[in-house]
Automatic annotation (TrEMBL), chain A:
It is a multi-pass membrane protein. Residues 45-248 form the ABC transmembrane type-1 domain. This is Molybdenum transport system permease. GO terms for molecular function: ABC-type sulfate transporter activity; molybdate ion transmembrane transporter activity. One of its GO terms (cellular component) is plasma membrane. Belongs to the binding-protein-dependent transport system permease family. CysTW subfamily. It holds the Pfam family BPD_transp_1. It is found in: Cell membrane; Membrane. Part of the ABC transporter complex CysAWTP (TC 3.A.1.6.1) involved in sulfate/thiosulfate import. Probably responsible for the translocation of the substrate across the membrane. Part of the binding-protein-dependent transport system for molybdenum; probably responsible for the translocation of the substrate across the membrane.
Length: 256, 274
């Protein structure tokens, strides 16, 4: 172990773990039980888990084909498309929320038409939460899957094609199984990002208990009046996400 | 091949030689920013080796327009002084101050949030410098045809309120209770400006915000006063903070806000002054 690597590695680890330790130290352990049983907490947690999971499903549905297009399709201006796909990663979340409002809001470009034709309006609904989370989390999945596709050996796909398999069959029977670890790693990242989403959610979907108040929103508002409650909520969110992520990685992702 | 190995060795030697320097620089950078950065209120040393002085003011989001003007006046009256603002939800600001953010002045939108800071014995003698009352904010053109507070309870009317944890939300709850109205909002926003944004974008039909916010968004929203607002007038306290890094400037800034000149700016923005 060269010290030039070990020292910054340990410093980096401490930097990442110390704030978490701070939360654990300051947590009001004595009142933990009664705080967790509050309906508001359980409601926010349920909403968070449901929306993050649905958002991940939406991301898989659209993100995997998009990653395939970037890796295998002969897109003109592929680099520009890739840059556009990664924009939500760097966009300040609140700006993402405003952008969603301008497109999908009641007076938005597409939202106005949705509202006048179907009477559907996404802001302030649970579906709006899913949209905000998917918008912010999808790039994680796309980048992860695209990387896996690029690293996969294309000769297997070519062999399948020469043996007469259709392109769809090649994709489902050869390509997807080969990049499965990449897809599940991307899905896990995507889910975690969706679970922690705050800015775009509160801006686009608003904040109403039971409908759009996910865990991060509940944490933020608890901080206004009761910092201890906010710490408890944060710990619950952390514990749940660590549990889910750890079990998923064991089950699916293998060594990716 | 052998050339590239030599080159690699060469560059490794260079890197190894550089490493202590880089590490030291990184360490200095870290300690440097560690000394200066607070939660959204860090004060980098003024240019010119500390010749410029800063006064850091934490103020409620609803004070954005009036305090920005007063800040410019203060800088004009005190050459070489730089006023920095951190506008946000009063409760969040109070938390930041209690956690040790380097603020000189705190102006809150409610006595309760000032009390948080006073209880930590960080605020000396807060004084009420302004009062604010709620108004109904409507998108330009009033698409839902709202005529009074009771219309907000109508079917299909989308209303945004501030969350009850923040001052404007507490005031809204009070006013609605005074009117004997039960309305179900579509969202409970984290501060008054976020609530107003929902109206400005036309995403809700109405919101309860301060009169000052309606005035600040003139042309984009229309305001509708309602009588029950008188039951929920908000007091705005201001205080120079006990641990103010620039204590003398803090006192002077508070003096400006409470002076006749300050009152003119505040009433111009729609506040009532004591």
């Amino acid at each position: 172990m060269p010290w030039a690597l070990t020292v910054p590695a340990v410093a980096g680890l401490v930097f990442l773990v110390l704030p978490l330790a701070g939360l654990l130290v300051r947590a009001p352990w004595s009142t933990m039980g009664e705080r967790l049983a509050e309906p508001l907490v359980l409601e926010a947690l349920r909403l968070s888990l449901v929306t993050a999971t649905v958002a991940t499903a939406v991301c898989l549905l659209f993100g995997v084909p998009l990653a395939w297009l970037l890796a295998r399709g002969n897109l003109p201006g592929r680099r520009l498309v890739r840059a556009l796909v990664t924009v939500p990663l760097v966009l300040p979340p609140v700006v993402g929320g405003v952008a969603l409002l301008l497109v999908l809001g009641r007076n938005g470009l597409a939202g106005r038409w949705l509202y006048e034709t179907f009477g559907v309006s996404l802001p302030f609904t649970t579906a709006g939460v899913v949209v905000a989370e998917a918008f912010v989390a999808m790039p994680f999945l796309v980048i992860s899957v695209e990387g896996a596709l690029k690293g996969a050996d294309q000769r297997f796909e070519e062999a399948a094609a020469t043996l007469g398999a259709s392109r769809w069959r090649v994709f489902t029977r050869v390509t997807l199984p080969m990049v499965a670890p990449g897809v599940s790693a991307g899905a896990v990242l995507c889910w975690a990002r969706a679970l922690g989403e705050f800015g775009a959610t509160i801006t686009f979907a608003g904040n109403f208990p039971g409908q759009t108040q996910t865990m991060p929103l509940a944490v933020y508002l608890a901080l206004e009046t009761d910092p201890e409650a906010a710490i408890v909520l944060s710990l619950v969110l952390l514990a749940v996400s660590v549990l889910v992520l750890a079990s998923l990685r064991e089950r699916w992702a293998g060594t990716s | 091949m052998s050339r590239s190995i030599t080159a690699a060795r060469e560059s490794r030697r260079v890197v190894r030689g550089l490493f202590p320097t880089v590490a030291l620089a990184a360490l200095l950078a870290v300690t440097g920013c560690g000394a200066g950065a607070g939660a959204e209120g860090g004060r980098p040393a003024g240019a010119g080796g500390g010749a410029a002085r800063t006064v850091t003011v934490f103020a409620a989001a609803s004070l954005t327009e009036s305090f920005t003007r007063l800040g410019a006046d203060f800088e004009a009256a005190n050459p070489g002084v730089d006023v920095r603002f951190n506008f946000g939800s009063s409760a969040t600001l109070a938390q930041q101050i209690v956690q040790g953010a380097p603020a000189d002045v705190f102006a809150a939108a409610s006595p309760a949030t000032m009390k948080t800071v006073a209880d930590a014995s960080l605020a000396a003698n807060p004084v009420v410098f302004a009062r604010n009352r709620l108004e109904i904010a409507l998108p330009a053109g009033n698409p839902a045809k709202i005529d009074d507070l009771a219309d907000l309870a109508g079917p299909g009317v989308k209303v945004a309120l501030c969350a009850p944890q923040v001052p404007c939300g507490a005031a809204a709850a009070k006013a609605l209770a005074a009117a004997g109205l039960k309305i179900v909002p579509v969202t409970l926003e984290q501060d008054v400006k976020a609530t107003l944004t929902k109206v400005t974008l036309g995403e809700v039909d109405a919101a309860l915000v301060y009169r000052t916010d309606v005035l600040a968004a003139v042309g984009k929203v229309q305001g509708l006063p309602f009588p029950e607002a008188a039951q929920a007038v908000n007091d705005y306290p201001i205080a120079a903070l006990a641990k103010a890094p620039s204590g003398d400037l803090a006192g002077r800034f508070v003096a400006l806000v409470t002076s006749p000149q300050g009152r003119v700016v505040l009433t111009g923005a729609g506040f009532e002054t004591p």
